[in-house]
Amino acid sequence: MNISNLQKNVLSLIKAFTFMFIKTKIKPILWFVISATFMLSGCVQYDLGINFNNTNNGEIVQHIQLSEKLTSFSGDYIWEWLNSLERRAQKLEGSAKRISPEELIVKIPFSNVRELQEKFSGFFNYRTEKNSNQVPQDSEIPTISSNLLVEENNFLLLSRNRLIYDLDLRSLSALTSKGNGLAGHGSIINLDFNLQTPWGVKNIQQTEDAIKPEKHGNQLVWKLKSGELNHIEVVFWLPNLLGIGTLIIILFVWGGFYLRYTLLPEPELSGLKDL
Q1: pTM as predicted
Q2: Among 48, 96, 133, 144, which residue's CB has the most CB atoms within a 10 Å radius?
Q3: In terms of C-beta density within 10 A (0-12 exposed, 13-18 middle, 19 or more buried), how is residue 271 classed?
Q4: Do the beta carbons of residue 46 and residue 64 sit within 8 Å?
Q5: Residue 144: which of 171, 173, 176, 175 has the closest Cα?
């Protein structure tokens, strides 16, 4: 199932950059200086995470932090972008919390793997009205391709899940210090993907473009690389509450029959005493 998870958000950000410099008619040399300033420290931290509690409960979490440099240059467009995230989260029964004018946390719940993929698609594959007076057309900005696949196998009390995530960020190579020939190894946009489960995650590194994650307890964190192919593949187990609940009911009923017909004495029949 193809899901453009970070595509629209990153592209909206690039649109804001592009339109800002077109409208203000900043000269190339000034654009280079501003870009260099951004490259030294980065101006956007975008953390995208999936938290699983069990097979029937989890949430998508997005944490966006913008630098004051970015908001001072293109505040109006950035505010509209953040507002659009809030509106889309509410349509999917999610919530959005503004920590500060430059920081936003979005949470979208899901009840199973299928709903997870549907809400991913519903949140990130959104459509906006095109207005040539506000932003450039999509053909003027780079495209990003991504693919998220989650396979689930249930084994009564447990479920085995395999998550494969591919994100092609080669079109964003111009946003990295390497792509611009600037000193350092920074990037305008820093993208992190994290996955958290109750019993931890096993990372599978099968391809050359697979990213080695950092482990924090039951959470794995991948630092996505702008300008490169990013591949993530993991396997994890989750408790199946439906199967566990069914087993508890069966044991409860069996215990009732055992108590009634094995441990308790048979009731005496008054009619037999008179015979």
Answers
A1: 0.72
A2: 48
A3: exposed
A4: yes
A5: 171
| Gap between the terminal Cα atoms of the chain | 77
Beta bridge mates, 238: 159
Q: What span, in angstroms and rounded, lies between the C-alpha atoms of 16 and 29?
A: 19
d(Cα 60, Cα 51) in Å, to the nearest integer? 6
Cα gap 16→255, rounded to integer Å = 65
- Between helix 7-24 and helix 68-91 the angle, nearest 10°, is 140
Contact 50, 60 (CB under 8 A): yes
Tokens 């591949």 sit at which residue?
A: 231
pLDDT given for residue 27 in this prediction? 43
Q: Within a 10 A sphere around the Cβ of 83, how many other Cβ atoms? A: 13
Q: Where are the domains of the chain?
A: 7-241
Q: List all residues 6 or more positions away from 135 whose beta carbon is below 8 Å from its beta carbon.
A: 15, 16, 18, 19, 77
Q: What is the pLDDT of residues 94-132, one digit of tens each?
A: 999 999 888 999 999 999 999 998 888 788 766 544 444
Query: If you ran DSSP here, which 8-state letter would residue 141 be given?
Result: S
